[in-house]
Predict the 3D structure of the following.
Amino acid sequence: MTDVNISSTDDADSATGSRSPAADPAAGSVADPAAADVTAAHESGASIASFGQLAELGHVASALDPDAKPVLRVENLKMYFPVKAPGLVRRTVGHVQAVDGISFEVPEAGSIGLVGESGCGKSTTGRLITRLYKPTGGSMMFEGHDIAKLSQREMKPLRRNVQMIFQDPYTSLNPRHTVGAIVGAPLSVHNIVPKNQILPRVQELLEVVGLNPEHYNRYPNEFSGGQRQRIGIARALTLNPKLLVADEPVSALDVSIQAQVINLLQDLQHEFGIAFLFIAHDLAVVRHFCPEIAVMYLGKIVEIGDRETIYSHPNHPYTQALLSAVPDVKQAAIGGRRERIRLEGDVPSPINPPSGCRFRTRCSIAKEICAKVEPPLLQIGKRHKVACHFAGELHEHPTRPITTGILGVDDQGSPTSGGSTIDVPPPSPSYDKTWFDVKKQAVTGV
Ligand SMILES: Nc1ncnc2c1ncn2[C@@H]1O[C@H](COP(=O)(O)OP(=O)(O)OP(=O)(O)O)[C@@H](O)[C@H]1O
Ligand code: SF4
Ligand SMILES: [Mg+2]
């Protein structure tokens, strides 16, 4: 087990001025009892094992509100990037199917986590929602508008409500601009406050994120990684957004600072009622922040559900493998030691993904049907959906496919009605009151 010593607390502290109550715990101030534990551990020379331990010391994981209305409803969202041939004509010779028909909802003031291996389409999803890209297909309902269809001009008034926090605090801030200019830019662009009120607003925001408001005229290179990420967060908060897309917001940071930034985000969420789409590799971080989690593989959501179900009862072989690969040091944060499942081979190319189930080239339980028919994202619990013909808990996968009834195919995936095409229903973003119980092999409900 690798112990991570807390070096000095985030050097944010050295630059920190007075803070709002919301920012206090996150910044590790000794006013917060949990943070005091961390400080005491540091002073006594004890080491803190992991993000999970650090974060749990500070704040409890946020809870799911099943009655919350969705602030964003994403349905059958697709992004295909054209692949051009080299040469003068630059003909389109194929498409990278970066996101291919995903559906989910982000609850008001809640958060949903997006996890999956590198290249599975997480950042592309975030960029679609913030409309840095225009989707190839699908819809994204936000405040009564389908933002997938709006032009850049039509998007402008809505853009302030959907903001993004980027992964790399070193490259996401312009090194030639002062912090005041960076955080204040959205206010000028959207013409929200008179010029003479920009500075006080910037200083207020710096204070909210635990930075010294007097440091508005400093440049990004005068701050540490953790402090820079706080500047990025202040910039994202400038316009009072309803939804924040946080793309790997802590993965570039040291583990002790990760916990502080995550706790800051949680405080801000509670204080300002911000909803989050939270993208991360780190399953311990996602578990702490998100009561609902979607697992992506090669452009598709393969499993989605509430935190307890996803971490304790994953039904998709990919989720089972992902969870088993979390290093020992993080096991406590995701619920104990697990059997290690090795995923063979690399992720296939999204230009030419495998037929049927995209995971089949790496799946140890794949059968004939998996190559022929794409598994639908089937609801198998109150708040649990999975896209697998043989969905089931680890070592309890059924021997016969569970999807034949809805798809009208036999066990090998051939249509039973004699037709040649199989219509896989597009995934729904919400949950039904009834579902297919895998253990009972029957439809059940509340
Ligand atoms: N602008 C683009 N043009 C062409 N292909 C792209 C573009 N952006 C992303 N891709 C491709 O789309 C796929 C998904 O990329 P994306 O960045 O969304 O993955 P990710 O899940 O965020 O990965 P990571 O965890 O490494 O950040 C990858 O195959 C990537 O190469
Ligand atoms: S559908 Fe088949 S290949 Fe895909 S995850 Fe399930 S068992 Fe594996
Ligand atoms: Mg990414």
Summary: The chain has two domains: 1-353, 356-446.
